[in-house]
Protein: Double C2-like domain-containing protein
Amino acid sequence: QTQQQPPDLVVDQCGDIHRTPGPIHPSDTHPGQHPPLPKNQKEEAKRGWVCLSPSFFFFFSFLSEKPTISIQEHMAIDVCPGPIQPIKQISDYFPRYPRGLPPSVGHAGDEEPDVEGYDSDDSTTLGTLEFSLLYDQENNALHCTINKAKGLKPMDHNGLSDPYVKLHLLPGASKANKLRTKTLHNTLNPVWSETLTYYGITDEDMVRKTLRISVCDEDKFRHNEFIGETRIPLKKLKPNQMKNFNNCLEKQLPVNKTEDKSLEERGRIMISLKYNTQKSCLVVGIIRCAHLAAMDANGFSDPYVKTYLKPDENKKSKHKTAVKKKTLNPEFNEEFCYDIKYADLTKKTLEVTVWDYDIGKSNDFIGGVSLGINANGERLKHWFDCLKNKDKKIERWHTLTNELPGSLND
Structure:
């Protein structure tokens, strides 16, 4: 005997069951038009129908060994949304360039920009640094107050760091002009509240120098690790006005490789000049030095200063100060007199050199500077001010470089 197939049935939104007179089209959205079933067939129909939602109907035949698929099932299958597409991130709509580079650099030629070593969100991965700067113009001092850092990048296995801050002046960065704070242990939010001061900063330095502030992690068993840095051009500062900063730390930026290594800074020296009209002599004062390069293994030097007014046919114009032991910031306060006519000063050059005294071997040259008509910048200005202001002591700070003036030998 042929088993009777169940009729086409639907369950409407109100729970009533209806017999379909024919195929149901997708446009047929009025289930109320179908005639209702007799009551004795409702229970049988409910056993063979399952209503999953008001919009989709699935038919399961429990009476037949071979299931049949109604058009309602086809309709439910056809509305599958398909594969899920990935949601675009907001960063996909904005190009990324290395920090500090303009967008035009990223499109130079066919090459992609080298972003290795840069971070797309340095403010969260490296941390921020709060500090203030003050240029004391009268005393030629740059005061750098390191307040605190927040959210530093963990550098140790315990998820913390041992941070400290070091300062350099660019160009001419060297150990001689490096200053650093104390180290704070096991913290990502250090509070230093420490002031570091550069002495001998001139107006010329304020125009051309940049202060590099680096945060590092101290490691007793390995090399100290770099965390991040920020750079401040000193020309942004106004004399005698403190300026506060709260900067995001950045990855280490490359130093200008074209910088002339012969002009490496070795410290600073304060010199006074005065032409005494009564004695017809030039009085040269060696007042003090600051931030000298360390020449000894103990991290210090034993400095003294030599002065030489040239050309000198008689070779009698050399003078030396006393030696100051184990210091990088010596105070000398010594004066030397050179008998010379005022008119001859325009033909002379004053060479000042700083040396490290060593017992039993040759002394080490630390740095030098030349003042005179052939000099430039602050060195030339200092010489002219001396010539224009007779009997007046003119004091100036000057930068020492590793270039040995003339053919001086110790």
About this structure: The first strand starts at residue 9 and ends at 11. The chain has five helices and 20 strands. Residues 9-78 form one domain. The chain has three domains: 9-78, 123-259, 263-401.
